[in-house]
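Following up on my earlier thread - several people asked me to post the actual chain instead of describing it. Fair enough. Here it is, all 206 residues.
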Amino acid sequence: MRQLSLALCLTLCAAGVAGANFQGLNQVLTPDLQPVGNLSLAFQEQHQAIGSPSGTLLELGVNRYLDLAVTQAFTPSQWSLGVETGFRRGQHLFAAGLANWTWGPGGSASPQPFVEYGYYGKWHEGVLGALWADGTPETILGYAYNVSPRLQLIADWQSGAENFSTVGDQCNFTPNLYLSTSLWHENAAPHRTFPFSFLCWTVKVF
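Reply from S.P.:
Thanks for posting it. Predicted structure:
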């Protein structure tokens, strides 16, 4: 498992903090929609205890109120679809959608509905919400601190024995390219900790 360290990420940061949405904080979704016409292509690597060791994400801001995301896991081969709608009033964000509608040789899963509220200030960002996995509600909590226009520190948690609490950071090399690295700690015994890395590039397509 290859991973760029948090120290390396801190050293190389070089641009403004980007948005999240299906790209999320570390683990959880966020209510800020992808800007209209922006297409993000991301590659992730993670410990197999979290999920597929590697995969890609495509996310598109369709309009002011709609965001679509498609992910592909490589081992085992799986595809997932996510849909998010929402709106913003000043520093307050509200969103709802469907996540993790999965199919492919690696297995299939029904979409998971979610609702979220977010507060996005100059320095502090917070997320509170719920996601229904197999009909069971799970709590979503997230916090990010904007250290500078170049660096964001992140922590989040999602309830459920199969989920994690996480800490990490997001650094930007350019306004369109960022790297996020984090450590994920199991909610359930034996409470192991695993690495995760996520590299994302965004381009305007319309």
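The first helix runs from residue 6 to 12. That should answer part of your original question.
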